[in-house]
Amino acid sequence: MKIQHIEAAGNLLATYHSDLTYIRDFHRRKKGRVSESEYAGTLSDFLEEFRVARCVCKNGIAKLLALTLRWVDGLTPNDVDNFAKQLREEGLTYGKTMTVLASKLLFLNNPQTILPFDNYTKRAVGLKENIYAEYEFRLSNFRKQEIEEIKRNLTFIGDYLLVIESEFRDELQDIETVRENRYIDKLLWTMGRAMSYR
What we know:
Number of strands: 0
Structural class: mainly alpha
Distance between the termini: 22 Å
Helix content: 55-70%
Largest sheet: none
Number of helices: 9
């Protein structure tokens, strides 16, 4: 394994349980199994852990959650770029288009398709603009180039991942794709961070 793949595997093992917990809890809220007041703290923790809490206007959590739930129930639940514009228009992001925030929120709803992105992951695929559609295109190319090594490395730590996933298999669909996407996200983050130190 290359050093960045080893680091990404370590990051995945360290954070995979909390990632899956955030995803599961969002879906529980979406299905009405958890009240808004119960979920508000979880969403705040997620925004802090994923380093986007500062993107949201003070006291905007309840409105952010309501808007996110409406968006993912709409016709274009995976449209990160337009969701980011909607967040700005609703006055939740200090008048800025926060595509990073939008990607991380929509990731909770559909981790099988959406990988959150930030400056490190963008840098890893050579993207300068905050345009998620372009990120998806470059991400697809990266996946094709690296898929054999990605699968090999996931197999190497597979027993540990299965233990982590056992708690979530009844509630999360296509967890194998989620696993692969979380590894790719950690790998891109690791690569992008290494590039920033050069």
